[in-house]
């Protein structure tokens, strides 16, 4: 017995836009990745851990403010929550496949020439202004060593 035939109700299907979080947008993720590497990282390369932390803090205003406060005073650790973004792995894989980044020395992620050009285009545009301003602000203080300390402090809690 078929349930639909017993309902005796008209129904139809309508195509509607499907919402998904901007964090899952591949183009946005790759853009943030190249900005991190281009603006904050020496020789346009960084460890995965550092990219993970910077990718998290750049996402919204409150996490940017918490991170800046931590950099000023590491004792304010209780406000900093680091979330590892599982979609970052996918973003990096796609960026590698597109020739935008490459794995350097078996452990670091580095911009290719194409990635440097892409980052330069973004920097010269009117896109990602809050993210670029934040990365410029923390580029001297968000060092590999400082972020390793943060990760160690957080993991010891």
Topology diagram in text:
Elements: H1 3-7, H2 26-40, E1 45-47, H3 48-57, H4 61-72, H5 86-97, E2 101-104, E3 108-111, H6 113-123, H7 129-138, H8 144-155
What does this entry look like structurally?
The protein is mostly helical and 157 residues long. It has one domain. Helix content is 55%, strand content 7%. It is built from eight helices and three strands, in the order H-H-E-H-H-H-E-E-H-H-H. The chain has helices at 3-7, 26-40, 48-57, 61-72, 86-97, 113-123, 129-138, 144-155, and strands spanning 45-47, 101-104, 108-111. A three-stranded antiparallel beta sheet has the order 1-3-2. Strand 2 and strand 3 (108-111) form a beta hairpin. The longest helix is centred in the first third of the chain and has 15 residues, at 26-40. It is globular. The model has no long low-confidence stretch (mean pLDDT 85).
What's a concise summary of this model?
The chain has helices at 3-7, 26-40, 48-57, 61-72, 86-97, 113-123, 129-138, 144-155; strands spanning 45-47, 101-104, 108-111.
Number of domains: 1
- Mean pLDDT over the residues: 85
How many H/I helical runs? 8
Q: List the secondary-structure elements in sequence, H or E.
A: HHEHHHEEHHH
């Amino acid at each position: 017995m078929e349930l639909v035939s017993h309902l005796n109700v008209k129904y139809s299907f309508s195509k509607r836009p499907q919402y998904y979080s901007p964090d899952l947008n591949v183009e946005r993720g790759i853009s943030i990745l190249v900005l991190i590497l281009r603006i904050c990282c020496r020789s346009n390369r960084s460890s995965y851990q550092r990219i993970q932390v910077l990718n998290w803090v750049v996402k919204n205003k409150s996490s940017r403010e918490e991170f800046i406060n931590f950099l000023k005073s590491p004792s304010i650790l209780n406000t900093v929550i680091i979330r590892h973004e599982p979609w970052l792995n996918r973003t990096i894989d796609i960026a590698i496949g597109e020739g935008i980044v490459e794995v350097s020395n078996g452990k670091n992620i580095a911009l290719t020439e194409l990635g440097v050009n892409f980052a330069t285009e973004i920097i010269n545009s009117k896109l990602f202004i809050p993210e670029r301003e934040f990365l410029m602000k923390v580029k001297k203080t968000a060092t590999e060593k400082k972020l390793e300390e943060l990760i160690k402090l957080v993991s010891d809690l």
